[in-house]
Amino acid sequence: MTGVLFNTATVLIGSSVGLLLKKGIPERVSKAVMIVLGLCTLYIGIAGALKGENTIVLIVSMVFGTIIGTLLDLDGKLNRLGGLVERKMKRSGENATIAEGFVTASLLFCIGAMTIVGSINSGLRGDHELIFTKSILDLCSSCMLASALGIGVLFAALFVLLFQGSLVLLSGLLAGVLTDPVIAEITCAGSVMIIGLGFNLIGLSKFRIVNMLPAIFLVPGVYYLAQLLPI
């Protein structure tokens, strides 16, 4: 859990710095930064999605994962959690809601290729190098996001701790299942979600990415099932 704790700390630090800088950044600059972050997020998602080799595993996992997430209303629950904090803390004059900052930052920090592979490496091998590298990137991106979206980004640190911590613990329990091909397919599914998040950041869409998250956990089962079928 060393890497996860370090990553959580960097998000807290970066967000705090961004909030301190927020008042000195013109709105037009904040909007420009959000577009740039969206474009970079699209690039990261596309690069990660190319790691997958079995399109059927991706489609089946994404479809059934989204069905599960939608039935459970994961997006609504996470937004309501952000809204609860927002009602208690929002200041007048803020353009972005706390829920928006919380959900956007949580997804950006938690469903990328570096998060998935880094957390699995940390849990399976005790190798924290990738998580440490991601943490430095999150330090910078959380600063930029907080300056644009406000205090909601700060609360995303809790989601980072819970989500990445869960991946680390699960990877330790599923050491025999998480082979390199399976990790590649998990990375692919997570990266497709990152692409959707990139479009959201640019403002071209409002995809409910949180409802897609169960797909990440379905990939191993779908992958091994696909190996049994003549396809």
Q: Note poorly predicted spans.
A: none
| Radius of gyration computed on alpha carbons | 17 Å
Shape: globular
Residue share in helix = over 70%
How many structural domains?
Answer: 1
- What is the count of β-strands? 0
Average the pLDDT over all residues and give the rounded result.
Answer: 85
Structural class based on helices, strands and sheet pairing: mainly alpha
Distance between the termini: 39 Å
How many distinct helices?
A: 10
Main sheet characteristics: none
The ordered H/E elements are HHHHHHHHHH
Work out the strand percent.
under 5%
List keywords for this structure.
231 residues, 80% helix, mainly alpha, globular, single chain
Task: Please characterize this protein's 3D structure.
This protein is mainly alpha-helical and 231 residues long. The radius of gyration is 17 Å and the shape is globular. It has one domain (2-228). It is built from 10 helices and no strands.
Summarize the structure.
The chain is mainly alpha-helical. It has helices at residues 2-22, 27-49, 55-72, 74-89, 98-110, 113-125, 129-149, 152-173, 180-202, 214-228. The protein has ten helices and no strands.
